[in-house]
Design a protein that fits this description.
This protein has helices at 2-14, 48-51, 237-240, 368-380, 382-398, 403-437, 511-518, and strands at residues 26-27, 40-42, 81-97, 111-117, 126-127, 136-138, 147-165, 175-182, 187-193, 197-198, 202-203, 212-213, 217-221, 249-252, 261-280, 293-299, 306-313, 324-343, 348-360. Strand 10 and strand 11 form a beta hairpin. The chain is built from seven helices and 19 strands. It is α+β, with helices and mostly antiparallel strands. Among the domains are: 21-182, Jelly Rolls (Sandwich), CATH 2.60.120.260; 187-360, Jelly Rolls. Helix 1 packs antiparallel against helix 6 and helix 4 packs across helix 5 (382-398). The structure holds 2-acetamido-2-deoxy-beta-D-glucopyranose (NAG) (4 copies).
């Protein structure tokens, strides 16, 4: 029981919320060493021991004092230094420095390009482009000054490469750092139709989407819906300000034949979802309104969406035009893919951010094929399928993230205990009533073995309670039964190690006498319940510490 409660507490602490990009700015450990040497690799190095990739750490001066590739930098981008973060991180800034080498260094990169890799993102390296479409980032101007660049949009990646660039051949050396945090939201991609144009000049496209766009559908990437930045209240403002195409992704109902917009989110692991928040525009005077209905479906393998969809109806608001964060409760549904279908309420539907509240479930979840097999076998043999289901539940309970299942087990155990307690109380009350209505004897009848009624304190243990059924404590394990008939006292004292040497008290009346006469069952000692544990939510984890970084 205690173990379970503790597990729930641990679980609440680790439950992840959305990421605040403004807090996701911690150095990720090139300078401090939190990123291990073996996770830093390079295309080549001039001399591994002195200027190998492990020396490419910002503000470090060991040995040669930087990473230096074998060949000079050219516009071809042949050389690179790579950092492996193992899991997806949100990288919000980069910083570079040249080789100072105690004043002897002369090499630095005036410009560089970033490439990144993320699981399931087209299985290739993606060249980073910032919001205005620039690929080349500004590097250093001497061997010692750092140059930091805030990445807008940020990069979601598990590996990142710096490629020094020079328009004329030039020897370069680099020291680098990256800033960001672990991507606990767990979204690895979303797929949806690309946004629409409004008139001739306004494009409500997902401009920062980094996946595949086949002209209609966006696939495998991340973009504006997850970048942690909300669009301005007035969708037109995004087009008046130069340099900020960011903002709303919008769809028009006539091009969709009024069918819902479907967005499929893929997550890193099977997760349990408590809510989704959709930041939506509601400028109804300009034909934009929050969706009228949202349907949310869940799948483990991504092909079949099992179970009833969660349906959410939005009551239309034609009073306030401000955007709103519409929250939909997801009732601890489990999956690795979440499909959201948004129904038009007006000609335009515009959203800017979608965030999920979820936590990882470490169960042994079968992939799609096995799921289908299970389905088939369940048609033939329902018992087998039930067994498989049970296995899933059990494995989820054994891991520290199945919040729903844990609560279920706890509630179950608690209610069994409550029922037991109620039964005991009722039993005691009935027995006492019976005893009160019977005439009180004044004499101790012969043959009543009073010693049998005394017993050692039992420390509040309730014999027979399933929780303690396997407690084998020789001192307390003998359940005491009062004699059923005074004529035939059970030889209990033979079993008791030491019948207490209590002399018969002088009073005419004492409790044991009455108990003997009425066949009263001694009330069980108070049931010990575990101390109430306060399950308080811990302060949200601010994920900009170094402990998050690296393997
Ligand atoms: C994109 O990069 C270019 C060149 O480094 C820079 O001038 C521009 O301000 C950047 N844009 C954004 C939105 O960061
Ligand atoms: C929407 O609300 C949720 C929960 O309060 C929050 O986590 C999320 O950051 C909000 N999103 C936006 C875009 O404000
Ligand atoms: C699109 O929405 C407008 C306004 O709600 C409506 O008049 C129109 O019929 C809708 N178009 C389609 C194709 O459903
Ligand atoms: C998950 O279950 C399958 C089939 O029962 C088994 O082969 C596999 O080893 C299990 N994986 C883990 C991590 O328990």
């Amino acid at each position: 029981m205690k173990v379970l409660l503790l597990a729930v507490m641990v679980l609440l602490v680790t439950a992840a919320d959305g990421i605040e990009p403004s807090q996701c700015i911690a150095p990720m450990g090139m300078e401090t060493g939190a990123i291990k040497d073996e996770d830093i690799t390079a295309s080549s190095s001039f001399e591994h021991g002195n200027v190998g990739p492990h020396h490419g750490r910002l503000r470090n001066e060991l040995d040669g004092g930087a990473w230096c590739p074998q060949s000079a930098a050219t516009p071809d981008l042949k050389e690179w230094i790579q950092i492996d973060l193992h899991t997806v991180h949100m990288i919000t800034a980069t910083e570079t420095q040249g080789r100072f080498g105690n004043g002897k260094g002369m090499e630095f990169a005036e410009a560089y390009v970033l490439e990144y890799w993320r699981p399931r993102l087209l299985n290739k390296w993606i060249r980073y482009r910032n919001r205005t479409g620039a690929e080349v980032l500004k590097g250093n101007i001497n061997t010692y000054l750092e140059s930091k660049t805030v990445l807008d949009p940020p990069i979601w990646a598990s590996k990142i490469k710096f490629l020094p660039l020079s328009h004329h051949e030039r020897t370069v050396c680099m020291r680098v750092e990256i800033y960001g945090c672990r991507w606990t939201d767990g979204i690895v991609s979303y797929s949806m139709p690309q946004g629409d144009k409004r008139g001739t000049s306004w494009e409500f496209y997902d401009t920062s989407y980094d996946g595949h766009w086949d002209g209609e559908k966006l696939q495998y990437g991340l973009g504006q819906l997850t970048d942690g930045r909300v669009a301005p209240d007035d969708f037109k403002a995004t087009f008046y300000q130069t340099n900020s195409q960011q903002g709303w992704v919008g769809w028009k109902n006539d091009t969709r034949k009024n069918k819902p917009i479907e967005i499929v989110f893929e997550f890193d692991k099977v997760r349990e979802f408590t809510a989704v928040h959709i930041y939506s525009n509601n400028q109804f005077t300009k034909d934009v309104q929050v969706f009228s209905q949202a349907r949310v479906l869940f799948s483990v393998g991504g092909k079949r969406y099992k179970g009833e969809p969660i349906t959410f109806d939005y009551i239309e608001d034609r009073i306030w035009e401000t955007p709103r964060n519409v929250s939909i409760r997801l009732h601890h549904r489990v999956g690795r893919f979440v499909k959201v279908q948004l129904q038009f309420a007006a000609r335009w539907l515009m959203i800017s951010e979608v965030t999920f509240d979820s936590s990882v479930v470490n169960g042994n979840f079968t992939e799609e094929e096995e799921e289908e097999q299970e389905e088939q076998s369940s048609q033939k043999d329902e018992i087998a399928a039930a067994g498989a289901d049970n296995k899933n539940v059990v494995s989820a309970v054994n891991t520290p993230s199945g919040l729903g299942q844990y609560l279920g087990v706890i509630v179950g155990v608690l209610s069994v205990l409550v029922v037991l307690m109620v039964a005991v109380v009722v039993f005691v009350v009935i027995q006492q009533r019976r005893y009160k209505s019977s005439p009180r004897p004044s004499q101790v009848p012969g043959g009543c073995d009073k010693a049998a009624l005394y017993r050692e304190p039992s420390m509040g243990r309730l014999p027979g309670s399933s929780d303690y059924a396997d407690v084998r404590d020789p001192e307390y394990a003998v359940p005491l039964q009062p004699p059923q008939t005074p004529r035939a006292p059970p030889p209990l004292h033979n079993f008791l190690p030491k019948p207490p040497p209590v002399p018969p008290p002088p009073e005419r009346y004492y409790a044991a006498t009455e108990i003997c006469n009425s066949g009263f069952v001694p009330p069980p000692p108070p049931l010990s319940t575990p101390p109430p544990v306060r399950l308080s939510r811990q302060p949200r984890y601010v994920s900009n510490t170094r402990t998050y970084v690296g393997p």
